[in-house]
C-alpha cells in the first residue's frame, strides 16, 4: 500500500518544530509549550453565524486578534469526516487509510474483527495498515527522552491505548466531566513541579452533541457557541492566574462540521443486501462484499463523490460507501420532516463538514489570515 503522508510541511511540522525548539540545558520556565484543543463538530462558519446574529464572542476574538485563523471555507478534513478518524489524522499527519482508524466503528477483514468503543483500546487498531510506524505527536514529543519533553492528554482519541499512552492521561472517557475540570487538570500538568508537560491535548464533545440534537443552524447551537466562548474565557483566566498564558502556544481546532440531511439513499434499492455485510453507521457505511459477489470498483462507481475519497483506499482493505446526500436543497420542502437528521461524516470535499482553525502564539503576537487548510496535510 502506498504510504499516504502529507504533501507539504504543515501542522505537524509546525507542532513538532515548536516542541523541539528547546535546548536541554534551559529551565522549564523557558520551554516552548503547546496546548492543542479540539471542540468536536465546530463547523468553520459557526462564529460568523453567531456574530451575524448580533452576539459577540470576545474570547474567540481574542485568539483571532492575536493569532492565526483559517478563514472561510475553513479546514478541509479527511474522509470519513467523523470524530475518531479525523482526530487521529490531526495527531499523526496521516490519511485514514494509513493510520487505520477509518470510522468510529468499522470492520477489518484482516483481523476479522470490528472496531468499536468496547474493543478500541487494543493497540493493533492504531498501528496503521502498513509496515511504517504510526505515532501520535504526544509519543513523538516524549521520544526525545529527557525531562523537558512530557505530554499530557485529556480524552483525545487514542490516548488511552496501552503502548501509545502519554505520561499523563485520563481514562476512561466520560462526557459528564465539565470543561472547567479538564482545563484545571491541563493547567496543573503545565505547572506542577515533577513531570511538567510541554505538550497538552484536550478534547471536548461540544458543539457536536448540540448539533446532533438540535441542528447546526438552530437557536440551541447559537447558545452553545456562546457558552463555549465563555469556556474559552475561563481557560484564558486560569492560565493567566498560573502565569503561563504568555508562554503558551494554543491551537484551537475541530474534527468536522455538520449539516442537515436532505435525502436518504437506500442501498437495498441498488444492491441485493444478501451480497454484502454492513458495518458502522450513517451517513456512510463500511461495506464488505461477500466472496465472489462484486468487485471493489463496482461499489465505487455507485457514487461520483466517492471517487475522490476512494483513491486513498486503493487496496480495499476497508471499504467506505457514501449513502447520503449533504448538498443543500435548492427547493426546500414546504412540509419538512418533523424529525430531521443532523450528521457529520459526509464526503470531505463538502464545505458543510469543514471545520475551525485558530492558533495563537502570545509571545510573538503574530496575526495573519490563512486560506484553505487541508487537515490531511499535517505532517
Task: Please describe what this structure looks like.
The protein has helices at residues 11-19, 46-52, 58-65, 83-92, 96-99, 137-142, 179-191, 208-214, 219-241, 296-300, 306-310; strands at residues 33-39, 67-70, 75-76, 106-108, 113-115, 151-154, 168-169, 199-204, 248-253, 259-260, 263-264, 276-279, 284-289, 320-322, 324-325, 342-343, 357-361, 368-370, 373-374. It has 379 residues and is of the alpha/beta class. The chain folds into 2 domains: 11-260 and 343-374, Alkaline Phosphatase, subunit A (3-Layer(aba) Sandwich), CATH 3.40.720.10; 263-331, no CATH class. Strands 7-6-8-1-9-17-2-18 form an 8-stranded mixed sheet, sandwiched between helices. β4 (106-108) and β5 (113-115) form a beta hairpin. The longest helix has 23 residues, at 219-241.
Amino acid at each position: 500500500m502506498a504510504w499516504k503522508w502529507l504533501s507539504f510541511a504543515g501542522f505537524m511540522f509546525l507542532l513538532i518544530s515548536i516542541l523541539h525548539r528547546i535546548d536541554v540545558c534551559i529551565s522549564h520556565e523557558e520551554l516552548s509549550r503547546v496546548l492543542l484543543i479540539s471542540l468536536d463538530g465546530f463547523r468553520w462558519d459557526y462564529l460568523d453565524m453567531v456574530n451575524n446574529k448580533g452576539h459577540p464572542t470576545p474570547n474567540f476574538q481574542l485568539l483571532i486578534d492575536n493569532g492565526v485563523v483559517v478563514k472561510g471555507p475553513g479546514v478541509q478534513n479527511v474522509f470519513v469526516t467523523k470524530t475518531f478518524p479525523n482526530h487521529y489524522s490531526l495527531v499523526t499527519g496521516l490519511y485514514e487509510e494509513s493510520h487505520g482508524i477509518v470510522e468510529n466503528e468499522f470492520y477489518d477483514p484482516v483481523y476479522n474483527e470490528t472496531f468499536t468503543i468496547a474493543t478500541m483500546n487494543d493497540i493493533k487498531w492504531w498501528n496503521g495498515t502498513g509496515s511504517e510506524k504510526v505515532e501520535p505527536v504526544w509519543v513523538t514529543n516524549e521520544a526525545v527522552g529527557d525531562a523537558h519533553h512530557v505530554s499530557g492528554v485529556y480524552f483525545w482519541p487514542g490516548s488511552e491505548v496501552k503502548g501509545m499512552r502519554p505520561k499523563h492521561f485520563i481514562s476512561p472517557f466520560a462526557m459528564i466531566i465539565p470543561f472547567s475540570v479538564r482545563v484545571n487538570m491541563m493547567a496543573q500538568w503545565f505547572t506542577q513541579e515533577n513531570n511538567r508537560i510541554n505538550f497538552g491535548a484536550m478534547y471536548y464533545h461540544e458543539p457536536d452533541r448540540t448539533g446532533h440534537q438540535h441542528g447546526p443552524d438552530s437557536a440551541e447551537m447559537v447558545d452553545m457557541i456562546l457558552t463555549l466562548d465563555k469556556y474559552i474565557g475561563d481557560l484564558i483566566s486560569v492560565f493567566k492566574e498560573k502565569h503561563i498564558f504568555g508562554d503558551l502556544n494554543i491551537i484551537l481546532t475541530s474534527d468536522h462540521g455538520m449539516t442537515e440531511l436532505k435525502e436518504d439513499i437506500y442501498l437495498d434499492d441498488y444492491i441485493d443486501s444478501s451480497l454484502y455485510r454492513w458495518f458502522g453507521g450513517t451517513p456512510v457505511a463500511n461495506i464488505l462484499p461477500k466472496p465472489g459477489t462484486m468487485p471493489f470498483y463496482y461499489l465505487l462507481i455507485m457514487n461520483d463523490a466517492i471517487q475522490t475519497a476512494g483513491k486513498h483506499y486503493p487496496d480495499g482493505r476497508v471499504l467506505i460507501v457514501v449513502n447520503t446526500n449533504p448538498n443543500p436543497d435548492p427547493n426546500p420542502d414546504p412540509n419538512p420532516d418533523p424529525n430531521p437528521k443532523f450528521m457529520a461524516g459526509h464526503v470531505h470535499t463538502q464545505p458543510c463538514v469543514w471545520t475551525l482553525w485558530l492558533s495563537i502564539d502570545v509571545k510573538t503576537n503574530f496575526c495573519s489570515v490563512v486560506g484553505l487548510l487541508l487537515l490531511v496535510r499535517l505532517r
